[in-house]
Predict the structure.
Amino acid sequence: MTVNPVGVISMFYARPFGPAHFPLFTAMRKAGMDFVELLVPEPGELDLAATRMALSETGLGVELAARVNLSRDLASDDPAAHEAGIAYLCGCVRIAAALGARRVGGPLYGAPLVFAGRMPTPVSEDVRRARVDRVVAGLRKAAVVAADHGVLLCVEPLNRFETDFCMTTRNGLDLVAQVDHPSVGVMLDTFHMAMEDDSVAGAIRMAGRHLVHFQANENHRGFIGSGHLDWNEIGRALADVGYDGPITLEPFRRNEHRLGVGLAQWRAPTEDESGRLAASAAHLRNVLALGRRSTSGVQ
Amino acid sequence: MTVNPVGVISMFYARPFGPAHFPLFTAMRKAGMDFVELLVPEPGELDLAATRMALSETGLGVELAARVNLSRDLASDDPAAHEAGIAYLCGCVRIAAALGARRVGGPLYGAPLVFAGRMPTPVSEDVRRARVDRVVAGLRKAAVVAADHGVLLCVEPLNRFETDFCMTTRNGLDLVAQVDHPSVGVMLDTFHMAMEDDSVAGAIRMAGRHLVHFQANENHRGFIGSGHLDWNEIGRALADVGYDGPITLEPFRRNEHRLGVGLAQWRAPTEDESGRLAASAAHLRNVLALGRRSTSGVQ
């Protein structure tokens, strides 16, 4: 029977995440986390050896979330930004290897939209093809380095507002098929899927064996179970495709209802949310167990 | 028994919408529409008398969708943009009266985000309060003109990426409560609700008698029934609160799955979608009828 490691994104607690936050590794363990998903540290944010030791001391695993921007962007028609995008991914792979992480996930293709202050703008078919070609070529180059280090590059479709390149599970599978490298797979995040896919569970089943990383988030990025996604159905779909990889919780929407306070930007926690985080992990493990159970009989 | 008028947004077919598109009014009627929701015409886009006559000839009702931007923005700290926001809303009211529309809906508060190329940025509590005060004051001024013309201003919460001012049903109700004017109510769009509210049906019930306009859209803005929203539950909730106002369909996500083609920007139709539009309207009318039926017995 597969048992998925369950983890939490570091920015649930703090951003940037520095050595002063290492005591949180113990809090994560207490809340039932098997691993932490760290944002790939920018230069100077984290000493890798010290981080690895702190993780090891608490028995916490680690995965990495890459951060792209317009100056490191595989999709960019600026050759410097495209090359910087490749160099960034290769650097992420080396950091993963140094920390003992198996995965580097995120919108690795680049093309950020709202968080880069870019407006949605139509592109011609020629421009579209050229962008796809650049991203595929860049991911292939980074995949060689990833394979050397035993690291998986996990391509995450976002949503129409966060990117104009890869927004649906179908887009993600298309991209991974074009890259066609065993070190590159699809990562799915139910927050984005809830916005863009016809069916969250259906998209998981469509991804099937190409699924290499998963983020379990409520429709509004609150704690799972606090919104309207069907977690039992999601658990069944993950079981149906035999997904045994990590599942990250990212409930960083705070308890914030004031008119005029935006919800897209990250904000620090304002209260102790460890109880609800622990309940989220337990809820997820239960739906996964129940999902597995449903596939043990005759279908 | 209440029967909600069902309509379609004009940009399902074309944007901008001009006199050359008047023959589409007949197509809308054939697809089962009771009304068209027109984007409020910019100067020179539509002759109001001719539009009213064309509508009348086809027996089609009309509602209006306002379009804000950074230069007409009640939330703006630029006094000229704030005043232009008020003037714009008053102009919308006059256009509504000229066309025979009862409603002007949309993000009337301003504060556009991704479609204005604005990045999510935290604001201080002082700034937040000042923005709320400006919006409330502006809506009150416009409400006086709306009342004079028998027009309702329908405040629509969007989502975290399209605005940083009013993103949830709770935000919308808060704003309407602060404005506290009978000509200002809440309008809900299930596309935004699916992203931000804990429960779409629960939010409809929370809005209750403050609900004055409704847009029925699938989670991904495709045709209703093609995604994962629970339309039977939505129909029951609309019946439970006695909503008898118009319901607009806005299925302007095209059948577009190419990697690298953004989904946020509007694009023209590429095929005849009248069959699926008609099916959407029929589906909506059925869930509304079934929802009403469910409230006729003992609960």
